[in-house]
């Protein structure tokens, strides 16, 4: 079962609630919230108050992707604001295992995100503790970038790694996913698909979501 997670980075922030309502009505499964600090990535987006302002206004779970340094300092604030899943970047964590336990202690789902150049081996000793792994299919920081094709082999290798250990972990992909390439990532093993510009910049969100779902399966 494929889950679609529209990234609000490409939404019209002056009309954020209406944008969220549109993707929920179109049948999307999760709301992907990109948090950027201007240090880990060269862009600044939003913090817990914006997340909190949306809580209770949609039934979609909040999938919060922290592209920030020192994520441990902010996990509690995002949980309090309404996060249901929190992803931290392996590249931003000095003590990755500790950070994963920190997320889980807050009672939300824990995920690790990997930049395109980061090997899967960083997951070796934390895999069993994860609910989801986020394979970045662009370098993080901006919406509207082009999909990096070498990430397909990485998704396949991750799928094998999870199956070999008999685990049940979602594989999320994020960056440059459109109706015409979504099948490449789902065939490789991804089941949670983030899409920002493809959904929010489309003329008809409902039709685009339907097309993405059809092409994914
Ligand atoms: O995390 C990020 C970018 O760092 C993403 O969530 C983007 O927002 C996805 O946007 P598109 O590539 O789908 O336009």
What is the structure about, briefly put?
This protein is α/β, with parallel strands linked by helices.
Notes on the protein architecture:
The protein has 217 residues and is an alpha/beta fold. It has one domain (3-216): Aldolase class I (TIM Barrel, Alpha-Beta Barrel). The chain has eight helices and eight strands; from the N terminus they run βαβαβαβαββαβαβαα. The chain has helices at 16-25, 48-54, 75-81, 96-105, 151-164, 182-188, 197-200, 205-216; strands spanning 3-6, 31-36, 62-67, 85-89, 109-114, 132-136, 170-174, 192-195. It has an eight-stranded parallel sheet. The chain is globular. It starts with a strand and ends with a helix. The structure holds 5-O-phosphono-D-xylulose. Residues 7, 9-10, 32, 34, 65, 138, 140-145, 174-177, 194-198 line the site of 5-O-phosphono-D-xylulose.
Topology at a glance:
Elements: E1 3-6, H1 16-25, E2 31-36, H2 48-54, E3 62-67, H3 75-81, E4 85-89, H4 96-105, E5 109-114, E6 132-136, H5 151-164, E7 170-174, H6 182-188, E8 192-195, H7 197-200, H8 205-216
5-O-phosphono-D-xylulose binds at residues 7, 9-10, 32, 34, 65, 138, 140-145, 174-177, 194-198.
Cofactor: Co(2+); Mn(2+); a divalent metal cation; Fe(2+)
GO molecular function: D-ribulose-phosphate 3-epimerase activity; metal ion binding
Keywords: Carbohydrate metabolism, Cobalt, Isomerase, Manganese, Metal-binding, Zinc
Helix segment tally:
8
Enumerate the spans where pLDDT stays under 50 for 5 or more consecutive residues: none
Largest sheet: 8 strands, parallel
Structural class: alpha/beta
CATH superfamily: Aldolase class I
In one word, what is the shape? globular
Radius of gyration, CA atoms, in whole angstroms: 16 Å
What name is given to the CATH topology? TIM Barrel
Gap between N and C termini: 8 Å
Pathway: Carbohydrate degradation
Organism: Natronincola ferrireducens
Active site: 34, 174
Protein name: Ribulose-phosphate 3-epimerase
